[in-house]
């Protein structure tokens, strides 16, 4: 008997907690789109830029510790610099974000 | 990642095919090793109940399953331990000779597993292969084979 | 009380189903209300499961034997510490632990992905809720902890082999590992559903995979230590299905940890990575069931238990679901780049993956072989240690070699000239070590010599990495050695943490090889005053000693140990009789020498006339196995440790442009 009562109370609390967000009708603010297309694209570009910069750092370490020769180093550095530059260029070409 | 065109040229086509070939060869050799070993090495043995083991598997190394019905002697003794194993389902029995480690849970009435050969009416066990099967979820073991195979 | 517990679990199950639906609606309809509601449901599930845990533990600690599970796994005389471990001493109890960890981890995962992966949250909730619902179904239907009976006067007690500190930590560690793999899996599935197949889910899942992998590894090491000291047959790994159950997901997770680095840098192996994490999680579910039920002992055992079918369903759902999602999103999973050169770190990682998956596959084959032969043949067949050892050696030696080659090769492309210079010292070290070992008579085991030579090679490689990195910092920044080294490690935690873990692996291999390929063993029947010689030690039997414990009576053989005349103390291998559980257990005596070797003594039997049968081993460098654990933990901690600079960089990336509020 007590068990049923306790369970019932718990169930009630749970149902209230779970149903509460659904009580009010859906509004525009409830739209679950954290990013617009533009924001998503720019975020991807920023990630690309950061990835290229991180790779440059790692390359510098690999070169300093003699894992990679000067020729290969120069070639890969040029490649990563180009990627980073391209990403930054595309970012700047978009409308500057409102600060 | 897909928005930025890679600055590297297309890359030497023969180089890529070369890489793919080596990877494919690596996979093939792993599979090949596996296939050859399982086909040709004597790596497995049948798992039999007492009733099955006494017919048609004489002289072969098998893993025997059964229940201990009586036991005498000491496995650590040079003369070894002798016990009778009964089939888990049928009533067939078989005498077993065993030397080596005995797991803690071993006793009359326990289900066990043991490796060895049935010959001339007696199952001669490989030392240290006696394993008890607990009625609950845990399996006790004395000694699976020592790693003499590494030397 | 049992009714409340059962009711809580049923309620939790209903909530889990609801949460899955809520996540689905939130994802399809992009409705925040359903997301919040589903998240609240996950919180409620956690609370309910904790209530169930509390009731269960209360029953254990108050000796409430009306709970069938409590009666089956505890007794009044069980020491208090082990009453807690009885929680996972039964199938129902351990499933309860699984669900508790899962619901806790789910909440943590949601919290951690709020910022960067907001759009994955609905799908993440859906998948984690579905996994939770599956385990809750098991807890409600076939394996309930709250089944009641007429309470007997006392319980059956806990298996004496489990009354050991290692068995207290080993199962929870493994469970943290098994459950931990659910998060990266859920992230992978959510990323595919949401169409976000770039590396972001990988980066978010990194710490989870590392932690889960670490727990699995430590769990296995603890289990091995338990087997070595408690079960006491002289070995530490028996290739038992239960042991293999943890090894398989660990191997696949190791492969995954390496290949994600390739995807992060080159945007390739996307499909392979999803397959790996799905496989790792599927093996983790497989492992949970292997350990907890006799499903693999035979097809008949499998069919006769109802748990078996649930497990088949779960595996089919996981693998089938992953397969369908991969097919659907295949266009998005095309590689961004290709491998440019075989002499590159990517190629090394690829071969490393093939070998690791190869070993995992061989182990899996060995585990299911009995089922396969029984199903497709007439007689059930089994494989044993030689089968597993063959693949560990044949696939493992090249893997060990790669561990030494990998650090020497740069990403994308390495020049052969540089490689020759880097290879020189390690190669010489390996060859010299091999020669020295053969000179010392270790050539009796060729795999042993090969493995140890490769270990020398790898060790020199790794140490040279630390030295070269610090030297480079010194020349660039002018720091002294200590500062350079600590800054080097601090700024490149994942790389050097990884190297520390590799050093742990080397120590483990040396310990494993030394203690198995090069051990010595003797046995003998001793009357009081007689001696046994093992290695350079002499064991003299003095007599049998009787002692009493809380729930056992023990008889020990007192052995005096001397080496070259000097007294090294006494060892007392014993036999314990547990009164309540009506079993005897063997307590081995171990003495570790300064060089890391062990004198390992088993009391095989006590004769009526007071003579004892003793088996003694000398196992060189076996202590390295356990020391390796510290390197392992240290390396993983270093990798997982939050990096302030990196965290700030990521925050800056998101702050460069104001984004709408988080869900």
Describe the structure.
The complex is a heterotrimer of chains A (99), B (151) and C (663). Chain A is mainly α. Helices cover 75% and strands 0% of the residues of chain A. Chain A has a domain at 35-99. Chain A is elongated, with a radius of gyration of 27 Å. The mean pLDDT of chain A is 81. With 151 residues, chain B is α+β, with helices and mostly antiparallel strands. In chain B, 21% of the residues lie in helices and 33% in strands. Chain B contains two helices and eight strands; from the N terminus they run αβαβββββββ. In chain B, strands 2-3-4-6-5 form a five-stranded mixed β-barrel. In chain B, a hairpin with a 6-residue loop joins strand 3 and strand 4. The longest helix of chain B has 28 residues, at 13-40. Chain B starts with 12 loop residues before the first helix and ends in a 10-residue tail after the last strand. The relative contact order of chain B is 0.13. Residues 1-8 and 136-151 of chain B have low confidence and may be disordered. Chain C is of the alpha+beta class. Chain C has four domains: 1-159, no CATH class; 164-330 and 343-361, no CATH class; 415-518 and 625-638; 521-619. Helix content of chain C is 64%, strand content 11%. The longest helix of chain C has 32 residues, at 200-231. Chain C is globular, with a radius of gyration of 27 Å. Chains B and C meet through helix 1, strand 1 and strand 8 of B and helix 14, strand 1, helix 15, helix 19 and strand 2 of C. Strand 1 (44-49) of chain B pairs antiparallel with strand 1 (381-383) of chain C.
């Amino acid at each position: 008997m007590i068990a049923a009562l306790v369970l019932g109370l718990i169930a009630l609390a749970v149902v209230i907690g779970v149903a509460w967000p659904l009580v009010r009708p859906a509004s525009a603010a409830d739209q679950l789109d954290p990013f617009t297309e533009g924001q998503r694209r720019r975020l991807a570009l920023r990630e690309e830029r950061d990835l290229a910069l991180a790779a440059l750092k790692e390359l510098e370490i690999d070169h300093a510790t003699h894992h990679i020769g000067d020729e290969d180093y120069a070639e890969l550095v040029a490649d990563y610099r180009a990627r980073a530059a391209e990403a930054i260029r595309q970012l700047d070409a978009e409308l500057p974000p409102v600060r | 990642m897909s928005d930025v065109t890679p600055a590297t040229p297309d890359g030497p086509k023969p180089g890529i095919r070369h890489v793919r070939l080596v990877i494919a060869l690596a996979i093939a050799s792993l599979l090949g090793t596996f296939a050859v070993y399982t086909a040709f090495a004597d790596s497995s043995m049948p798992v039999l109940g007492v009733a099955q083991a006494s017919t048609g598997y004489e002289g072969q190394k098998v893993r025997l399953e059964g229940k201990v019905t009586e036991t005498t002697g000491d496995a650590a003794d040079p003369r070894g331990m002798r016990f009778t194993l009964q089939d888990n389902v049928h009533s067939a029995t078989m005498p077993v000779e065993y030397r080596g480690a005995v797991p803690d849970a071993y006793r009359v009435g326990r289900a066990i597993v043991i490796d060895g050969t049935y010959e001339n009416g007696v199952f001669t066990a490989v030392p240290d292969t006696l394993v008890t099967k607990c009625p609950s979820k845990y399996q006790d073991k004395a000694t699976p084979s020592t790693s003499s195979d590494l030397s | 009380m049992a009714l409340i517990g059962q009711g809580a679990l049923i309620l939790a199950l209903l909530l889990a189903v609801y949460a899955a639906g809520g996540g689905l609606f939130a994802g399809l309809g992009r409705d925040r209300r359903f997301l919040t509601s589903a998240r609240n449901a996950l919180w409620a599930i956690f609370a309910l499961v904790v209530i169930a845990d509390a009731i269960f533990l209360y029953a254990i600690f108050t000796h409430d034997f009306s709970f069938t599970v409590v009666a089956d796994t505890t007794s009044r005389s069980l020491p208090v510490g082990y009453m807690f471990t009885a929680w996972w001493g039964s199938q129902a109890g351990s499933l309860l632990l699984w669900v508790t960890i899962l619901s806790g981890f789910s909440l943590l995962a949601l919290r951690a992905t709020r910022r960067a992966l907001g759009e994955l949250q609905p799908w993440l909730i859906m998948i984690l809720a579905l996994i939770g619902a599956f385990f809750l179904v098991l807890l409600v239907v076939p394996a309930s902890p709250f089944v009641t009976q007429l309470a007997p006067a006392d319980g059956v007690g806990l298996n004496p082999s489990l009354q050991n500190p290692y068995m207290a930590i080993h199962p929870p560690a493994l469970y943290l590992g098994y459950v931990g793999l659910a998060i990266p899996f859920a992230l992978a599935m959510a990323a595919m559903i949401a169409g976000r197949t770039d590396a972001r889910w990988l980066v978010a899942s990194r710490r989870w995979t590392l932690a889960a992998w670490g727990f699995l590894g430590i769990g296995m090491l603890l289990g091995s230590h338990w087997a070595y000291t408690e079960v006491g047959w002289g070995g530490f790994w028996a290739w038992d299905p239960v042991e293999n159950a943890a090894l398989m997901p660990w191997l696949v997770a190791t492969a995954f940890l390496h290949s994600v680095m390739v995807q992060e840098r080159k945007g390739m192996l996307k499909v392979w990575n999803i397959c790996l994490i799905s496989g790792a999680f599927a093996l983790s579910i497989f492992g949970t069931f292997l350990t907890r039920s006799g499903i693999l002992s035979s097809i008949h055992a499998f069919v006769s238990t109802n748990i078996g079918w649930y497990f088949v369903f779960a595996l089919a759902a996981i693998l089938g679901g992953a397969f369908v999602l991969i097919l659907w999103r295949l266009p998005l999973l095309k590689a961004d780049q290709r491998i440019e050169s075989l002499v590159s770190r990517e190629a090394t990682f690829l071969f490393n993956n093939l070998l690791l998956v190869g070993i995992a596959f061989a182990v899996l084959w060995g585990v299911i072989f009995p089922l396969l032969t029984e199903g497709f043949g007439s007689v059930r067949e089994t494989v044993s240690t030689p089968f597993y050892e063959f693949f560990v050696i044949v696939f493992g030696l090249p893997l060990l070699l790669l561990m030494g080659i990998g650090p020497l090769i740069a990403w994308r492309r390495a020049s052969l000239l540089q490689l020759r210079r880097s290879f020189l010292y390690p190669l010489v070290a390996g060859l010299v070590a091999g020669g020295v070992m053969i000179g010392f008579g270790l050539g009796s085991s060729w795999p042993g010599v090969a493995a140890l030579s490769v270990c020398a090679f790898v060790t020199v490689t790794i140490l040279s990495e630390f030295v070269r990195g610090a030297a480079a910092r010194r020349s660039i920044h002018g720091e002294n050695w200590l500062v350079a080294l600590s800054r080097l490690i601090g700024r490149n935690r994942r790389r050097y943490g990884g190297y520390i873990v590799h050093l742990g692996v080397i120590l483990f291999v040396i310990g494993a090889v030394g203690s198995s390929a090069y051990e010595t063993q003797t046995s003998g029947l001793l009357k009081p005053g007689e001696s046994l010689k093992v290695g350079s030690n002499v064991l003299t039997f003095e007599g049998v000693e009787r002692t009493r414990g809380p729930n056992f009576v023990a008889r020990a053989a007192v052995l005096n140990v001397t080496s070259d005349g000097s007294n090294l103390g006494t060892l007392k291998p014993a036999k314990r009789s547990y009164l309540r559980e009506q079993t005897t257990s063997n307590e081995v005596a171990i003495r570790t020498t300064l060089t890391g070797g062990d004198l390992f003594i088993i009391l095989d039997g006590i004769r009526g006339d007071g003579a004892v049968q003793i088996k003694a081993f000398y196992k060189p460098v076996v202590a390295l196995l356990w020391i390796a654990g510290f390197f392992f933990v240290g390396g993983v901690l270093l990798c997982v440790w939050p990096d302030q600079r990196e965290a700030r960089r990521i925050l800056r990336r998101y702050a460069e442009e104001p984004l709408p509020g988080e869900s």
